[in-house]
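note to self — DONT lose this again. spent like an hour looking for the file last time. sequence + predicted structure for the chain T wanted, 334 res
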Amino acid sequence: MTENLRARFFPRPQPALQLKSKPIPVVDPFYREPIWVGILEDFRELFFPRKLPPLQLESHAIAVSDPLARPRDRKSSLLSVGIHALVLAIILAVIFWHPKRPMVAQVVPPPNFNITPFMPLDANAKVMGGGGGGGDRDLLQAPVGKLPTIAKVQFVPPDEVIRNPKPKLAVEPTVVMPANIQLPNSAMPNLGDPLTAVRGPASNGTGNASGIGSGNSGGVGTGSGAGVGPGQGGGYGGGIYQVGGGVRPPVVIYAPEPEFSEQARMAKYQGLCVLEIVVDAKGMPRDPKVIQHLGMGLDEKALESVKQYRFKPATLAGKPVAVRMDISIDFHIY
């Protein structure tokens, strides 16, 4: 700081500056030759070209290694190819391989209603046959009650719950049965099914097509017809039974796999075919018919397969009986 003050107020005289360097002539970087000089040079080169000495290359090519090239081991190459082939084989196996599952016919029995099992009272089985049942799709089962009048022809089906109390033309309800058959009838005042143990509020039953019970077609019981009991077509408790109401379904013991028709195989056509058959008391299929068609020749293949089925027959109170049932056959391409 003292030096700075002394230099400020008492400056020392400096010797005169002596330049020892000499100016060097340089080319003016901003100088441009006149245009006529360039044109003259071009004409001279065109008509009187100057001969230049041949070009002599003093450099020599030196071999160098490729920095992008990597040394490849033969073992690693074979290992890489093997891994890629294995992965490709696994992918193809997952895509094209599917386990083949056998086609199994599915037995679809009707709903099993809780109706007391019954057997015909007449020991002569030849005169027994037919049956009937009905209902109006009620949620409750038909309770026990007495039978209506027996007649040869039914004009009005029986009803426990009367929907039309004042009809224009009153006709007595009846069931179709032989007059000489004695049935265990109930002493109750209301109409119902005398062969059931259900006791409860009044109901026409869970069946359909009028009548009383869980069957259909205007009778009383679990069958189909204007008669009484299981079976079909009127009469009393026999004929072809339906699964349920004490009738145990048959069991499939041999079911060959159905074949595809050539037309369905080429079109890759598949689906479900439903057949109705009668399984007799010996476990043999009878009268097969298609109720849900599939087409393309698969219906015929299903019929051929079902005709070869064998069953453990249905039973009622431990005895084999003939039943009508549905069988579903699934044609599926795996």
